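TL;DR need C-alpha cells for one chain.
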Amino acid sequence: MPEQLTLTVSLRGTREVKGDCQLFRLTGLLDAFSEPTFRKKLGQYVEDGPPHVVLDLAHIDFVDSSGLGALVQLAKKAQSAGGSFQIVTNPRVTQTVKLVRLESFLSLQDSVEVAIKRVSESNQG
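>> reply
TL;DR here they are.
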C-alpha cells in the first residue's frame, strides 16, 4: 500500500517500496516554494533506502530551476549510496530538463515500468 506524502500545498505524492527500489509518484508543482521540503523529505528517504529511486513526475505541472537543482542533488545522493535514480517524465518536464541538458544525468524514462526495468537491469550488470 503506497504511503501518502504531503510535501506542500502545491506538491503531493505517494511512496511505495518495491524490492530494493523506492517509487515516488508526485503531482503538482516542483518549484522554489516546494523545493526545500521536497529535497529534505525525499533526501531522507534516499538516505534510509532502499538505494534505487524511481521518481514519477508524469503528473507534475511545472518544474523550475529550484526543482531541477533538487533533482540533481537527489540523483547524486542516490548514486553515492550505490543506487540509481530514474525519472518518469511528461513533455513539460522533459522540455525543461533538456533545456539545461540534464536528460542523460537524470535518466529520463517514458513509463514507471521502463524505469523499474532499468533498475533491475542495473542490479544484474
